[in-house]
Amino acid sequence: MNYFSPEPKKRKEDFFDMEYEWSALDRALKKGKMVVVTGLRRYGKTSLIMTYMNESRKKYVYLNCRLLPSVVSLNSFRALLEEELTKNSWGIRLLRSLKSAEVQLGGFGLKVGRKGEESILRTLKALEGSVLVIDEAQTLRMSAYRFDSLLAYIFDTTDVKLIISGSEVGLLYRFLRLEDPEAPLYGRTYSEVRLNPLSRDKAKEFLILGLEQENMVVDERVIEDALENLDGVIGWLTYFGYSLATGGLSHEKIYEKASILAVDELKKALKLYGAGEPRYSEALKITATLGSATWTELKTGIEARLGKITDSTLSNLLRNLKDSGFIRKDEGKYTLTDPILRRGILTHL
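The chain above was modelled as a monomer; its predicted structure follows.
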C-alpha cells in the first residue's frame, strides 16, 4: 500500500504525517478511558485510528456505524458487533466462550429485558482489556434505543476503552451530550483529538511523495492546481493522486468525478429531512453560488424560490447543515466546508 491507496491506512509507513494527532491519541488512551476523534469527511480519522490500533498491537474491535441501517436497532448493532468479532481468532474464541459461560452484569440500571440486550452486555463485559472503536457514532442517534446509556455502561462498569469518532461533529456531540447534566455520559472524563486539513506545504509534500511512490512525474502546474482546488483535504488529495496514477484522467476530469461523488453523498444525507429537503438544497445552492452568504441572503434567496420560511425554521436548517459538517459560520457568513462539494453543488445539485 502507498499514500494514494484509497482504503483506510493500517500501517504507519503508509500513513502520511499526523504525528501530533498520533501522539495525542496515544496519550489519551494511556491516561483515560474515552477518546473522541473528530474531523470533517475525508480528513483521515479512520486511517489515524486503524493505523494506531494496528501499530500499537492493542486488542480492539472496530465498528463502522455507516454499515448500520438508517434506523438503528439494538439487534442491528449487536449483529455488527458480532460480525466484527468473527474477523479475528480471539473474537471467535470470545463468542464461543459466551455460549457456555455467564458474565456478571454490572448494576448500572439498564433494564435487561430482551435477549439482544443481554447478549450485547455480556459481550461488552467479556471485552475487558480491549478497545472498542465506534466510528461515525452519530449514526446511533437514529434509534429509539439509548445508545448513550450503553456507552455510559461501558465506561462505568468495564475495563474497555472507547474511541468514538464522527465526521458530523455537531451531530456527534448532540448524540453524546457530554455537557448535559441530564445525559447518561455527563461527567465522564474524555479527551478529544481533532483532525484538520493539511497545510499547503504539507499537502504539496504529500502529493510529491505519493507521485514518487507511483514513479510518476507531472507538471508542477498540475500539483499547484490540485492544491488550489482541494484545499488540504487529505481524502481528496488521495483520490486525486490515485485517479491520476491509475485512470489516465486529466485533472479537470478528476475534479468532476469527485464532485459527483460528493453530491451523491450529500443527496443521501439530505433525504433524512423529508419534506424539508428542498430548503436544505436551496440553502446550499445559495451558499455555493455566492461563495459565502449572510443570514439575510439565505432567507431572501430561499423565499424567492420556495416561499416563506420562518426565522426559527431557517435557524434549525442552518444548525443542522453546520452540525452535519456541510457548512461553517465565520464572521457572520456561511461557507461550504468542502471545495469539491461546492463545485458539485454548482453543477449537479
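The chain has three domains: 18-194, 200-265, 269-348.
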